[in-house]
Amino acid sequence: MALRRAIADYLRLLRGLRCEADQVIIVSGTRQGMDIAARLLLDPGEAAWVENPGFPGLRGPLIAAGARLVPLAVDDEGLDLSRAARAPRPRLICVTPSHQFPLGMTMSIARRLALLERARAENAWIFEDDYDSEWRYRGRPLAALQGLDGDGRVIYAGSFSKVLFGSLRIGYLVVPPAVLEPFLRARATLDDQPSLVAQPALAAFLSEGHFAAYLRRQRRVYRARQERALAAARRHLAGLLDVPPDPGGLHLIGYLTPGLARRMDDREASRRAAALGIAVPPLSDYWIGRPRRQGLMLGYATLPEAAIDPAMERLARALQARAGPQA
Ligand SMILES: Cc1ncc(COP(=O)(O)O)c(C=O)c1O
To answer: Does the 212-320 domain belong in CATH 3.40.50.150?
Structure first.
C-alpha cells in the first residue's frame, strides 16, 4: 500500500492523473499490465487498434488473448483516427501519447480529445502506455490522457523499466473504479506480488524524494547525451542518416537518406552496424505489414558522453562500406 500511495501521489502531481491509491495495481511491468487488460476486456476475435509502428511487447499479450490486431498509422500528432473510418469496431485502443514508440511524437490535445470521443462512441477501452513520460528535455510535457477521461475508460500503464531499470520488474496500472475488482483478482491469479523485497524500498525511494531528485539529475545527463548524439550525427552521418532532434526519450531515429536507401534497407544497415559492434535496431522490426519508413534506432542514453562521437563515427563507417559478403 505504501508503494501504491507513493505512485498515486507522483501521478497526480506530475502526470495530472485523477486517481486514488487503491486504483493503483502493482504489476511486473507494462507488458503484464497489458496481459491482464487484454484477458479481461477483450473476447477472442474482437478488434484492438494499435499504433503502427509500435511496441511488439504489447502486441504479444493482445494476440495471446485472441484479439484481432488493427494497425493504424501515426503522423506528427500521433494516432490518426481519420484513417480509421472503416476500421473494425474496437474493444480496446492502445496508444503511447506522451512519446510515441518508436517514432517519438507527442499526441496533440486535439487528437487526445478526438480519441476519447471516438472511444466513447465505440464503447471501447483505451490502454494508455505512458512510456517515456519522465524523459522530457524541451518544452512542457502534456499531462496524461487519463486526466482528461471523464467516463472511466482509460487503463493507464506506467513502468519503472525505462526510468530506473528493467530487471526491477515493477510497473503499475491505474484502473477505473468500475473494473478495479476484476483487475485485482486477475492480477492475483497470474502470480504473487512483484518482489516484496523491492517494493518497500521503491516506496521509500519515491516518498522520501529521491526519485524526483534522480529524475531531475538524470534529465540533465540524458539531455546532454542527446545533444552530443545530434552533434555527432551531423558530423559523421550527413548523407547517410537524417537524425531529427526529439524533445525527450532515450533514443533518436536515424532515417535512411534516399542515397543510402538505394544501397540497402534498414535491416541490412543494422546488420552491418552490428558487425562493427554497434547495436541499432531497424525501424522495420516495429511495423505490422510493409514498413513505411526506413530507419535505425540510435540509443544514446546509456553511453557516456565521450563514447558517443566514436560510436557515431563507427556507425558511419559501417554504412559507408561497400557491400561485403552477406551474413
Ligand atoms: C513502448 C514501451 N512501453 C513499455 C515498455 C516497458 O515494458 P515493461 O514495463 O513490461 O518492461 C517498453 C520497454 O521497452 C516500451 O518500449
So the answer is: no
Lowest mean pLDDT: which of 26-30, 65-69, 166-170, 193-197? Answer: 193-197
CA of 326 to the centre of ligand 1 (A): 32
Question: pTM value?
Answer: 0.96
User: What pLDDT is attached to residue 327?
Assistant: 43
Percent of the chain exceeding pLDDT 90 equals 93
| Ligand 1 pocket residue status of 159, Cβ below 6 Å | yes
CB distance 28 to ligand 1 below 6 Å = no
One-letter amino acid of 94: C
Q: Which atom of ligand 1 is nearest the CA belonging to 129?
A: 3
Give, as one character, the DSSP assignment of residue 146: G
CATH number of 2-208: 3.40.640.10
Sign of CA dihedral 76, 81, 84, 88: positive
Domain ranges of the chain: 2-208, 212-320
137 pLDDT more than 70? yes
